[in-house]
Amino acid sequence: MVNKTKSIIASSVAIALVGLYIGSQANAKGNDVVSATPNTQQISKDKLDAYIKFTKILNLIEHEYVDDVNTTTLVNKALKGLVSNLDAHSSYMNKDEYKDLNVHTKGEFGGLGLSVGMRDNAITIIAPIKDTPAYKAGIKAGDLILKIDGKATMGMNIDEAVKLMRGKPKTKIMLTIVRKDQPKPLDFTITRDIIKVQSVFSKSISGDILYIQITSFDQNVVKEVQKVVKNNPKIKGIVLDLRNNPGGLLDQAIGLTDIFVDNGVIVSQKGRAKGENITYKATIGGVETKVPLVVLVNGGSASASEIVSGALQDLDRAVVVGEKTFGKGSVQAVLPIGNEEGLRLTVARYYLPSGRSIQAKGVEPDIIIHSGAISTQEESAMIKENELSGHLKNGDNKKPEPVVDKSDDNKSDDTKISETELYKDAQLKSSVDILKALMITKKGK
What we know:
- This protein is an alpha+beta fold.
- It is 31% helix and 23% strand.
- It contains eleven helices and 19 strands.
- The protein is elongated.
């Protein structure tokens, strides 16, 4: 009798789904359902069989599982698993997650200051945001999160991990990190704080070079970079630092690229739906500057950062320096489900002006420079001409240049990057050297 009741319940749910499916197909295709070919009939049958199987399993869990479970909870869990298994960036969002969706783009939120992604089924740190608790604690791009407050992340999706890491300001959390070349996992105790993101930083180098660092692509990037460029009209070259920039808003990536180019395709996206096939082009007259440009990237440069660096590389507008980027080249759309829930779904892939895809490949720098410091050596002990007894004088009749006191180079200045600071950053130092060569040859103008 019990088995008969279960069969009736399962059958009734399945029949309801069959009716809904046929109705939706009729609405979508009209008479095509009636005149379907054998192949389309088989596809329809396969879909119906899959729907029926799902409802049968749902029904069995509801009635046979050891604990009482709510149908809504079961369906939500099923949706979580279903969508997260599509790819690393698609997810079903419940009420709280949907509400918090745009928190990063608004520039202020509570948490650690980390951008995370999924790599090889592990929660991976794309980059810590500069001057946030995670950054100050020593978390690095490429670190794998093994545990969050003792809870293993194996099988955990990105949304679950982010939810655990967020919390009230001034509360502590422990991250257990696996780091390349470290024999044992590392524990970091970090105090949460309000994360106020300043996305654009600028300094001068050697007086005529402008250094612009962009830490994330929030809604203020284009406006801030335009302001920086306009306030420095006499610069002869720009280093654009996108290292450890996890990405952000597409329109800001396009707008930033448009500051440096005035024609050509910046990026295009192609998806299964025709509405997702979009090409974004540079705006004529939108260029703010034509000075030579070097873009600095590394493994923490992802998504929007890869669009900017890859587009400027393809359009021959900049030399890209550093290390291979992260390789996140997919487009996510947010589809509302009712008023309180949503679906973040991958709907397309990005393609650079040359037609190449970023996805899982990243942007390969024109010149590969690994991170680290540059060791400085004292001037060689070899004898120079001016040290020889009776050496011939120069003969240019110019007064000797005054000796310049360079002791100020070691002093901290928020508006400048000193030579001492440059030598601590091999990638930046190399970028400046390459830019100086471009400035001499006027390449990029």
